[in-house]
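User: quick one, fold this
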Amino acid sequence: MTRRPFEADQEQFALWQPKRLPTLMPARRVVIAHRDPMIGESFVLLLGLKGLAAQHVRDVDALTMLIEDWHPQALMIDTRLGTGEHSGFVRRLCDNPRHAGTLLLALSNFLPEDCVPVLQEAGFDGHCRRPCPMWRVSEVLADFFAPNGVSMS
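Assistant:
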């Protein structure tokens, strides 16, 4: 597959903190934390077709348990989950040295729009605003899971 050009609109999609796993992992695990089961399960199916192990959760409590039990390397988090009693969840995760290599992607809203600087401050490594083209997420994850120096996309 040839690399598709990214559009210049950072408000729709951006990766400001690219990460790459230090070694090739035998199990490539991604968690999609999204309130809408149709969106979350769609991502799980599509990522499964790409050879990634993916699971969907609908709230921060389930996400916390899955992170501790399953140890995913990448998290795609609906920004609506970080509100209320769980505000600061992503920042705490980002500041925890055990999760320094975890890729944190925000699945941000289109109405109301999540402000990119706020997402950066929260600790996300990038974001994709709904509706999010799957090819962009797929390329970011392929590069993240690729052995050092090898682009998988």
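User: anything notable?
Assistant: The mean pLDDT is 84.
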